[in-house]
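Write out the bound-state structure for iron/sulfur cluster.
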Amino acid sequence: MAGVYIHIPFCKKFCSYCDFYHIEAPVDFSDFISALFCEAEKRSDYLGNEKVSTIYIGGGTPSVMPVNLINRMLEKLGTIFSVEEGCEITVELNPDDIDNDFIRELKATPVNRVSLGIQSWNDRDLKLLGRRHNAAQAEAALEQILSAGYSNLTIDLIYGIPGTTSHDWASNLEKSFTFDIKHLSAYHLSFEPGTLLWKMKEKGQITEIDEEESSSQFNLLIEMTAAAGFTHYEISNFCKPGYLSLHNSNYWKQVNYLGLGPSAHSFNGFSRQWNVRDVKKYMKAVISGSDFHEGEELDRKTRFNEYIMTSLRTMWGIDLDLIESRFEKEGYDYIVNLSAKFINYGLMNQVKNTLVLTNQGKMISDNIISELMLP
Ligand code: SF4
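---
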């Protein structure tokens, strides 16, 4: 079981908060697609004999590309890798790229899960975030996706936006739950250095919401998703029964994956590689046969820390049996001793042989994780 990620680094407009690798979308994608196929062929043995059980096309904005190219990518992967029947295939979409024709065409491809970047139902927020769409376009896109027959639908929302209150955030969640969405990814807005939003904050044009408001919005998220029948299976991810993201869950469970495209990362259990973060350099290097990625072997300490970091964010938590088998008694004792105080404070629970965060612990998950990691 393995995953393939394809990074489509193109955007029609740059959002004010985004630091993902992206450039302006070209008129013609053919050179990029050729390079992508060339990389897939060169790295055909990366996953060994493992079957591909999830494919995720993200970005950037995959929906700036015509559907027939998305389909060609999937066909190509099918000729190179052993793609499992029923493989979860997700594509990220931007609301303003979608119309009925686009969705109908997409539905005729093997894509069986779509992720719509809504971010907020409030036009003021969308403007501040520099999104291309407005709330009415998001609503129309959701309706088109649902009426085309896509049931495995996830949306992205952002909370903690400057100027918002808990009441605004509750309205955003309520509005989302009026649609038959099966999955929600909700992220707290972060101010990444170099982004437009970060510059606006530095100049005093906007103010970050305070900690109390931030906690209140996170609590609302937990309460309202639970009341709407969602399972909180990762800090930022919520799903209806049977609809968790297999692709992302596999990242958190440290399943092997191959990342194709500029800036994409790959992981095979013992090493990690990352592709050059520049479209032109990527295409030139892939086609000419020169190096297009760097990598590192993951030593024992890094593997331990990565396991703690990813597992504790999920509802499955830290598996103490797994810790003992991979990191011996030393690793087991280390984590059991350090987690005792978090259990005493009500921030973590031990459930059989796993350690999981309580709702209170989820509020300060980053602090807990960094205390549990090996220095
Ligand atoms: S958030 Fe998405 S659409 Fe906006 S600039 Fe970043 S990658 Fe592009």
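---
Residues 11, 14-15, 18, 20, 22, 59-61, 94 surround iron/sulfur cluster (CB under 6 Å).
The CA atoms of residues 4 and 55 lie 5 Å apart.
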